[in-house]
Amino acid sequence: VKKLTDPEHFDYIIVGAGSAGCVLANRLSNDPRNSVLLIEASGDDRPWRNLRHAWDTMMIHVPVGFARTLATPALGWGYKSQPEPGTEGRIHELLRGKVLGGCSSINGMIYVRGQPEDYDHWRQLGATGWSSDDVLPYFLRSAARTPGAASGGPLNVTSAGSGGMDVSRAVMRACEQADIPIRKDLNGAEQEGVAWADLTVRNGRRHSTAVAYLHPILNRKNLKLLTGTLVDRILFKGKRAAGVRYVSGSHTGEVRARGELVLCGGTYNSSQLLELSGIGDGGRLRELGIETIVHQPQVGENLQDHVLSAMTFRLKPHVASVNELTRGLRLAREVVKYAGTRRGLLARGSVELLLFARSGPQVATPDIQMHIMPATKTSATGAQHMVAEIEPGLTFAPCHLRPESRGHSHIQSSDAAMQSDILDNYLTAVEDQTALLAGMSLVRAIAAQSALKDYIEYEKMPGTKCDSDAALMAFIRASATPMHHPVGTCRMGSDDAAGSIHSSGHGGSRDCVSSMGRSCPGSSRETPTHRSS
Ligand SMILES: Cc1cc2nc3c(=O)[nH]c(=O)nc-3n(C[C@H](O)[C@H](O)[C@H](O)COP(=O)(O)OP(=O)(O)OC[C@H]3O[C@@H](n4cnc5c(N)ncnc54)[C@H](O)[C@@H]3O)c2cc1C
After folding, report:
1. Ligand 1 centroid distance, CA of 96 (Å)
2. pLDDT of amino acid 491
3. Mode of pairing for the β-strands spanning 9-15 and 481-482
4. Strand runs labelled E in 401-480
């Protein structure tokens, strides 16, 4: 982590050392002819390099620590939504990692590449280089797998099956009874079905993009990393992005890019930086006293996110779940076990099983992703903090993969420290409501199978009394939470409305984050972000 000596020039400047930024810093600096500057607003993810937050950063690397780190203020941007009309006017926490590795340091570690059909659709919409055939080689060269490396990439993927619980195996059998195929690999040719989740974990430790891509290359002479440094403006030469202005403590500086500036600040922050710098809707920018460089009203529009609605089941007293391991002597035993073997409770990710299904016969490819975990949290309605219940429990959390609801993220001030006005409009589109209702019926169909008879005692949330679509919808509106997979605010493409800057003629800069996704791919969000890098 170095300081800049003004004036200094780089071939590439990357803004944001999150999922995309770490991958890109690695790939670009692999060529010794490139000089690369990586600028990150937050602190280091290594405890010994971030003593002020040593405990918090230590928890990043312990997989089960995600239940704590996702709600740790020191590791996040602390964004909140506007009151959301589709979820009873609730204000949602919009989690974004603010630490090296970005969201990959606090996320649920689920590794899903997404459906080939979605990438082919993006390609049809004008996103050149994004067809399924185009993206597959990048996925293959990014990931390795334990046990047995499928390919030689830096990012390690481990199956949750190695530590899977008995009740999860019963869920798999129940799925089979409900005509849902059991798959070996949800990243293979067929996604529809149920399988042990793949997790970005290596030897019982979270394998964030900071750990996989950045830490090993920090000694490269042609790479400079600045932490604790907020980029608050893109600097232009005419309409060409030529560098950035940054703030580090009380120091404000400028640095120039000879080649390209790459925005990797994430869905909310990249569109924020574009607008702060004069790329956005001219009228909106004028009102805030910002000179318009490019009038591009789509910047900050087209925001979409996944939202999930968790259903929980009380398990019979003799059935083992994660809940009972999280307290007292059992927890102490798990800590010792982890210290010795890197296995057990502390090596667990956010889910054990993943299920992909279609919400109805009219849908061509899976549009429901379901997270299944033999654990239940006490705060069932909305809160992000995860404290396990005392009795054994099982959670099924379906989400609609291709939301139709659209929102926005726009700056409210010319001050980069002020969060944008963010409204996702969760569940305002009828299609999103119908798909979630279908997801919940599917959960009940699985839970009713004989394979789970000896495991499930009763449905806890929403409970069997909630038996009409209206009642279920009321439950969804009151309890659904974002999955933190926002996309779309700087969408790529070749049409005039595309907000992405590399496509619209004001060269020198490109956007390389989840924000550029045209729409939600049929998966979780991190892995597709690796391809964008
Ligand atoms: C709680 C949670 C759980 C999730 N679970 C999963 C999961 O299990 N599987 C999955 O695939 N996806 C998951 N996701 C989504 C996935 O992690 C993100 O979509 C992906 O990591 C986004 O990558 P990114 O590079 O676009 O942004 P980020 O990873 O957010 O990186 C942006 C980086 O830029 C920095 N930055 C921002 N603005 C500036 C600025 N102006 N100056 C300098 N630095 C700046 C930020 O501090 C951050 O480090 C989850 C996300 C969250 C929050």
Report:
1. 6
2. 76
3. unpaired
4. 408-410, 421-423, 456-461
Compute the average pLDDT of residues 418-440. 98
The mean pLDDT value of the chain amounts to 90
114 DSSP assignment: -
Q: What is the pLDDT of residue 159?
A: 92
Mean pLDDT along residues 213-231: 97
Please name the residue whose Cα sits nearest to atom 38 of ligand 1: 265
- Rounded to two decimals, the pTM is 0.92
Q: What is the pLDDT of residues 365-380, one digit of tens each?
A: 999 999 999 999 986 4
Q: Number of C-alpha atoms within 13 angstroms, CB side, residue 60?
A: 30
3-state helix, strand, coil in the chain (%, to 5): 30, 25, 45
Give ligand 1 pocket residues (Cβ under 6 A).
15-21, 39-42, 70, 95-98, 102-104, 106-110, 230-231, 264-266, 269, 273, 350, 484-485, 513-514, 524-527, 529
Which of 110, 129, 107, 78 has its CA nearest to residue 18? 107
Q: Is 502 a catalytic residue?
A: no
**DSSP label of 284:** H
* Of 378, 385, 303, 351, residue with least CA distance to 93: 385
Which atom of ligand 1 has the smallest separation from the CA of 526? 11
Instruction: List pLDDT tens digits, range 265-303.
Output: 999 999 999 999 999 999 999 999 999 999 999 999 999
Mean pLDDT calculated for residue range 47-54? 96
Angle between the N-to-C axes of helices 166-177 and 430-447, in degrees from 0 to 180, rounded to the nearest 10: 110
Give residue for tokens 């002479």.
Answer: 221
306, 485, 502, 530: the active-site residue: 485
